[in-house]
Design goal:
This protein is an alpha/beta fold. Helix content is about 30%, strand content about 15%.
Length: about 250
């Protein structure tokens, strides 16, 4: 990686858009999904595959088992933003970063200070009663009983505002992500295997010639990147932007 050349490239960009996946949160102690140490690999061979337990059908038919898995494997309330999250927040504060698009549901970008965050797959921090639509924050139910949380008003079942398998992405959020990418001069994609549709289809909306792909393992879109960096998300962002942000 020619760090100095990439730093000059970054310094010349003022319409930056960032698109990240689970690999952006591993340095905060949250496992990813598809790497060798990821959730889908470590739980292979269990009674129900993680992909099955994170489906809408499983949620409706086996709600207690879903919530047991969700509470134990999907929520990390003690996790803190890492250096990469903080760099992005500072770039946004400077006015150079126009949007953070994330496949993650952990809320770490907002915890770091980012404001324009487009959460493609929802958030653990938003939860709704399926009956009366009352809102519940994570802390309203996570440490309480019963295992399946119920609404205090109508006793309806509470569902996390996360996009499960078989569910559709939010049209407004997806459209805003398309528009942000189309207007970007520098498009940074990091910490994602780019194997999940339709999120991976967002790359085709980029019209520029500065697509920077940062991922430790190969992706199906490596050939489309103008700058391919097999390294960690936070390490690269700190190297590229630390000088001007100090």
């Amino acid at each position: 990686m020619d760090v100095e050349a990439l730093k000059r490239l970054a310094a010349d960009s003022d319409r930056i858009v960032f698109f990240g996946g689970a690999g952006t949160s591993t340095e905060s102690g949250i496992p990813d999904f598809r790497s060798q140490s990821g959730l889908f690999q470590t739980l292979r061979g269990t009674e129900h595959a993680p992909e099955e337990m994170l489906s809408h059908t499983f949620f409706m038919k086996h709600t207690e088992e879903f919530y047991r898995f969700y509470r134990e494997k999907m929520i990390y309330p003690e996790a803190l933003p890492n250096a990469g999250h903080r760099v992005l927040a500072r770039l946004e504060a400077e006015g150079r970063l126009k949007a953070v698009i994330t496949q993650n549901i952990d809320g770490l970008h907002q915890a770091a200070g980012s404001r324009h965050v487009l959460e493609l797959h929802g958030s653990i921090h938003r939860n709704y009663c399926m009956k009366c639509r009352a809102f519940y924050a994570l802390e309203d139910w996570f440490h309480t009983e019963p295992l399946v949380p119920v609404c205090k008003t109508c006793s309806g079942m509470i569902k996390p505002d996360v996009v499960l398998y078989e569910e559709k992405l939010n049209d407004r959020v997806f459209r805003e992500a398309q528009e942000a990418i189309a207007e970007a001069d520098l498009f940074i994609v990091a910490g994602t295997s780019l194997s999940v549709y339709p999120a991976n289809g967002l790359l085709r909306y980029y019209r520029g010639d500065k697509l920077m792909l940062i991922n430790k393992s190969p992706t199906p879109f490596d050939g489309s990147a103008h700058y391919l960096i097999p390294d960690s998300f936070s390490s690269v962002l700190v190297q590229l932007f630390a000088d001007e942000l100090d």
